[in-house]
Automatic annotation (TrEMBL):
Occurrences of domain Fe2OG dioxygenase (ranges): 95-193
Gene Ontology molecular function terms on file: ferrous iron binding; hypoxia-inducible factor-proline dioxygenase activity; L-ascorbic acid binding
Biological process per Gene Ontology, one example term: cellular response to hypoxia
Organism: Acipenser ruthenus
Full protein name: hypoxia-inducible factor-proline dioxygenase
Length: 324
């Protein structure tokens, strides 16, 4: 890993245990539990145009997933042993994701060139275990190509049965899955670096606070404009709307990101829902307050307009009397 950023181990579990894992994965597929793979980042391009796999997340304690749990335990041993012996550099492993069981259904779909962790979400190591017996890339496709950073070579990884692939999850290893023309199975787990994961959680938290602060600032300027400016109502109206937009965008973005990274960041659904409830409640309270101020300003603007019209009518009457 230190030299090349990639490590391949064939015959990782052995034929017996590897075959048991394969049977469990096939049962999961036949039971209809797989769903279309999603993207971690928010994109306008439909996910199916980027990745064509179907996935299910497995924790290891589910009924019928005993062999998958054994696989996860074996990978844990490899990663922790490597970390303790300094084979993983400065990474301080403090957890991993659930296992992502993936199937490319064999209809010519793949996964375009991408990076697992382009934005520092905490994942540092990617481990992929392949389950495809008698696989021939010339016939079945599905080749994994890795393009190591700062190297001219390309690593071509055939997804053959009982092969374990380990590589850095960040921008050092862009990779893609070529179109597969037969059912292609793999199980992936990602391991977290303690420092980067803590920074990622803080980044998501501060993201909302930044937008909320901007909303507070805009609203405060609106209040000052209303009190001190000669064009107070119109200026305050604009700043109140800007404040509401900041709070709305910040809360929506925060909640969307929470759900997008829930699995990769090991966030429990109750924790995500609780965070979402707190943020949405704060945003709703703020928006209601802003709406009340805007409503009050609209009344005053209309009133000022009516008073101005009344003054104009009085001036016209006075001019008419003088002309007579």
């Amino acid at each position: 890993m230190k030299c090349y950023g990639i490590c391949v181990k064939d015959g990782f579990l052995g034929d017996e245990l590897g075959s048991q894992v394969l049977r469990e994965v096939e049962v999961l597929n036949q039971s209809g539990q797989f769903r279309n793979g999603q993207l971690v980042s928010q994109r306008t391009i439909p996910s199916r145009n980027i990745r064509g796999d179907q996935i299910v997340w497995v924790e290891g304690g589910e009924l019928g997933c005993e062999s998958i749990r054994s696989l996860m335990g074996r990978i844990d041993e490899v990663i922790m042993y490597s970390a303790m012996n300094g084979r993983l550099g400065d990474c301080m492993i403090n957890g991993r994701t659930k296992a992502m069981v993936a199937c490319y259904p064999g209809n010519g779909t793949g996964y375009v060139r991408h990076v697992d962790n382009p934005n520092g979400d905490g994942r540092c190591i990617t481990c992929i275990y392949y389950l495809n017996k008698n696989w021939d890339v010339k016939v079945h496709g599905g080749l994994l190509q890795i393009f190591p950073e700062s190297r001219t070579v390309v690593a071509n990884i055939e997804p053959i049965f009982d092969r374990l692939l380990i590589f850095w999850s960040d921008r050092r290893n862009p990779h893609e899955v070529k179109p597969a023309y037969a059912a292609r199975y793999a199980i992936t787990v990602w391991y977290f670096d303690a420092k980067e994961r803590a920074e990622a959680k803080e980044k998501y938290r501060l993201g909302f606070l930044s937008w909320f602060r901007n909303g507070l600032l805009a609203t405060g300027i609106g209040v000052i404009s209303y009190v001190q400016s000669d064009v107070g109502c119109e200026a305050a109206y604009g700043f109140f709307i800007l404040g509401g937009m900041c709070v709305s965008f910040g809360s929506t973005s925060y909640i969307g990101n929470l759900f997008a990274v829930r699995r990769t960041m090991l966030l429990s659904l109750p924790a995500v829902l609780l965070n979402g409830l707190v943020v949405s409640s704060a945003a709703l309270f703020w928006l209601c307050a802003v709406a009340l101020y805007i409503g009050r300003l609209e009344v005053e603007i209309v009133r000022e307009g009516e008073e101005g019209c009344e003054d104009c009518r009085n001036d016209e009457k006075d001019r008419g009397k003088k002309n007579k």
